[in-house]
Amino acid sequence: xxxxxxxxxxxxxxxxSGNPIVFNVKGVxxxxxxxxxxxxxxxxGNETSQSVxxxxxxxxxxxxxxxxxxxxxxxxxxxxASKDYHDPIVKLTNYFLLLLSTPVMALIGFDYLVNSIKxxxxxxITTDLLIxxxxxxxxxxxxxxxxxxxxxxxxxxxxxxxxLSAFGKFIxxxxxxxxxxxxxxxxxxxxxxxxxxxxxxxxxxxxxxxKIGDIVKVKPDEIIPVxxxxxxxxxxxxxSFFTGEQKPVAKFEGDSVYAGSVSIDGSFLIKAINDFxxxxxxxxxxxxxx
Length: 290
What we know:
By secondary structure, the protein is an alpha+beta fold. The protein folds into two domains: 7-186, no CATH class; 193-289, Calcium-transporting ATPase, cytoplasmic transduction domain A, CATH 2.70.150.
């Protein structure tokens, strides 16, 4: 990927390092950072309730069957791979395991296979390819073992690979979703404009136009728009976003304040020590996106 190309996930909005995964959403190809974000997209209200219900049904059935395959495999083989494959009970069990495993591979495993092929067509290798190779190799060997009556079936391996990896991707994507949501909430902490005092005259400008050294006026109940040093005024400031402390902190001349804090009862003149792009709250946002 060229450095000039910046891809952002359609779901979480976080920058994508490497090649994005493309899924069709409502007839339009959208770029996602991972399969999990596509799953979250289907359940977070961006899709119809019918498709959400369909997804959960597919997910639930697959996990139930994968768990049943695992328990039945342990019950029959019990860690012993030297069972007599011509034993009617073993043969019947293997066919039953085939019957249970096939829907799991079709409902969840097939998605990994399709994603892998799409990635390969874009000349990219993803973890989906490794999962698909491992799961379908185990499934293929198991089917051959069942039909030919030789070797050891690995249905529990095949189904658990896709089931657990899908669950892991879902958890990871939900973490990304919450991080992206917190980024949006964090950005909302900053006001759009600031009052700058210059030669005794007040003027209102956008906060991204405030320069280092500018004197910014903040009134009671206003959000402090810049990182700076108090040059005049005193009062209580709420800094709970930065410190976690809900109790307001007393601030006096010479004290530091952060953009996004709230002036409770004081009027301040604050000398900006950072511009908009380098203030503390934007650095926090950058760290979340990383």
